[in-house]
Batch of 2 targets.
Target 1
Amino acid sequence: MLCVFVLVQFQFEVAESARQRNAKEWTDSEMDDWADHFIRSAENTFSYQWSLEAFALDLRAPTIVDVELVVVDVTEESLSSTEHVFTAIVTRGSKERPQTFDKQRKPQVQLRETDVSLKPSHGGEGLAQRLTDHEIAHCLGLSHPRCQDEDLYCYGDPKTAEGQSVTGLGATVTQKDYVVFAEIMGEITPTKSWRVRSETFRSQEPRPFRYMKIPGPKPDRLPGPARSHGLPLHRHTRHHRKH
Ligand SMILES: [Zn+2]
């Protein structure tokens, strides 16, 4: 199994216009709930959607690898100074559409409080999307199906699979969206050629995948999967952004 870690540092703020309308500040439990919702949704959306396979030269059975996405909520200053941490700025009362971009080589994701909910897509003809999942796709290096811009054309035809994908206007993770994980396997094992298996994981006999979990590089502080086991959340101080 391939565990892909996405490190995110959350920052919560209130839009100035909303503050003037007496919007409340974020409470600790609201921030924890929001981050938890974001993490669970991203992990569930991107994990175990497709399998990767590599054939050996002697044509033995292919090696099959499943993918688990683990979103790590980074709260330590030491970690947040590396350029591999995405800063997710969550703004209450903002009307700006979410965005993922590099700010002085520090990747940032700008989100509204409501973006963690499943909502009808703009121009999506009945499609719904959780925009936090769409932005995580950008964090993984994925572009819109047709082009990188924000034109509606770039998101794909909502009547087709690409338009209905999480990188388009919908919520499904397509085979093409998984190519990035095949590329990661290619970097780890350069002698093998990896591709995304054409049958989905879900079309196969269900496998109890939890027991196969491999601890990540920092097993002492792995918040991702532990949350799925109903363990209480670790309380910590969150970063309020001040202007
Ligand atoms: Zn986008």
Note: Residues 2-216+236-240 form a domain with the Collagenase (Catalytic Domain) fold (CATH 3.40.390).
Target 2
Amino acid sequence: MRDSGRYLLSGMMDCGVCGAKYVAAMTIHTNKPTPHVYFYCNNKLRHGKESCASKPVNLAIAEGVIMHTLVYTLLTEEEIKKFIQAFNEFAESDTEEFERKRQALAKQMEGVKKKWLTSSVRYSRALIQGAL
Ligand SMILES: [Zn+2]
């Protein structure tokens, strides 16, 4: 699932093999409890693994490398403070978006539970009345 625009580095990295943009995509591993986000070469993502030999980059690793580089080699103390503030604002907006999605899903889940309960009651009544 492509999920660009939501991550700090979306659209900012180029593929070292073919030159296409790297884009964020969520990957669900069957053996891990939560989905992981990786950056993939957009060319490879759209046209298959034959189109580019690049490897995906884990989101946390990519952001960690960038933050380490910024903090230890490029920025002054004042710039680091501004960067941290900007990052916190970014993370907070992401959390608000996540909370909105969580509430929408909880509401949907409630609707599904009600439908399931109604169906269960109808099914039980039908069983009791010998209709099934
Ligand atoms: Zn590529």
Note: The chain has a mean pLDDT of 82.
